[in-house]
Specification:
The protein has no helices and nine strands. By secondary structure, the chain is mainly beta. Strands 1-3-8-5-6 form a five-stranded mixed sheet, with no helix packed on it.
Length: 103
């Protein structure tokens, strides 16, 4: 598990390459309303906000994780709960991702 901190006054973390099946955490020290997760599409990425642990999906199963599919670069915009500024991500392979404040 890797953990990244977005310091007060900063907007996000620079891109990093995820390890398959490993949950990475991004913490914002400022309270933020919305964030963007950017993926290069090299692997499927699942993301949660508010401290819920993401899981890679099983066909037809209900999930609390938002999906960025493999095969195409993408951006997922999501609201952040007022009481928790933590984003968790998991990938099916070595996807390059970054997390930043949504403007």
């Amino acid at each position: 598990m890797a953990e990244y901190v977005v310091r007060s006054g900063d907007y996000g973390v620079e891109p990093w390459t995820m390890t398959a099946g490993q949950v990475d955490i991004v913490r914002f020290t400022d309270n933020v309303d919305r964030i963007e997760v950017v993926s290069n599409g090299a692997a499927e990425v699942r993301v949660t906000n508010g401290g819920t642990r993401p899981t890679l999906g099983t066909a037809g199963a209900s999930t609390k994780s938002l999906r960025l599919p493999s095969g195409l670069a993408g951006v997922r915009d999501l609201p952040m709960p007022q009481d928790n500024d933590v984003v968790m991500l998991v990938a099916s392979g070595p996807a390059e991702v970054s997390v930043q404040v949504s403007m």
